[in-house]
Amino acid sequence: MAKRDYYEVLGVSKNATEEEIKKAYRKIAMANHPDTHPDDKDAEERFKEASEAYEILSDKTKRANYDQFGFAGVEGGAGGYSNVYRDFSDLFSGSGFGGFSDIFDSFFGGGQSRSQARGPARGASLQYTVSISFHDAVFGTKVDVDYSHDDPCPSCGGSGGSGRSTCPTCHGSGQVTRGSGFFQMASQCPTCHGRGSVIDNKCPSCGGSGLTTKREKLSVTIPCGSADGTKLVLRGKGNAGANGGAPGDLVILVRVKDDKYFLRDERDIYLQVPISMTQAALGCEIEVPVVDGGKVRVSVPSGIQSGKQLRLKNRGVPAFRGSLDDRGDMYLVILVETPKRLGLKARKLMKELAEELGEDSSPTPVPFDK
Ligand SMILES: [Zn+2]
Ligand SMILES: [Zn+2]
Questions:
Q1: Could you say which of 113, 247, 323, 325 has the lowest number of CB atoms within 10 Å?
Q2: Residue range(s) defining the domain that contains residue 317
């Protein structure tokens, strides 16, 4: 199932305030609470979905990343719902629910954070959308990409500071146990984020996170033959990893603008051209635009029927990253136009023509092409 937009999940607008987001989440979470809906898979889904949306939208940085890059901007970097956890008591105080946090942990605490604890974690991949013309998609182009990503802090080299001692909260295990009875679950330690140790002297530049936001400008080559929806992956150009993990990727999503006249189908290009009924009957030479720019001469055979296609070899689209000498074809779709208004002389000539050619007032039907 496709993932729903976080704003849509919470039913708030893109510029909702923090307070509106919190209220919306609280309402959904309470209405679908697992305590009051045991064995209700739909409620559980809604609850999880809303919690995830809230985790991202309640965090300024994650929300900004999501707004800019969509799901790719926040995937992998979600941090195990720790944010929701932190706001939890505040959010549900006075809600009348007991034991909620235990259940909450059972959904989001355990497995999620344990897998992220301690070890190197790969940085989040980011997505950047570029919009290019029909022509540039066919022949390739270069685009400037200007974006921001997490980078290791230059002052501390990503370590976050100097000196490490055992975390006072979890005593080095990286995990804390919450809840009681059935719902007792281990989750990532909120103090050290699973590392088991804390920094003694936090780096003043990054405040101990080991990360800084770096703005980067890249010139990215969009290969010839790119299609709408093509994704180009720039390895390691995403967010820096945590605990020595590899950086994520930068994914360039290529959107191709529609052309007013050219229509593309895989590697072929279609163009509709109107000609007059006399041109169709007698045959003619016409000039038509090609995607290369400029025009080419095409001879239209006499007696051509409306809707007939004429092929121009090698005037289509090259293979993705392929050779410009080996392209698909272009098809001219001929539209024979009937004159809408006839002057006196034209009408007279037309009548003579009709008499000359003869007219069938009981035409035999033509089967559809199937
Ligand atoms: Zn630093
Ligand atoms: Zn700890």
A1: 325
A2: 263-354
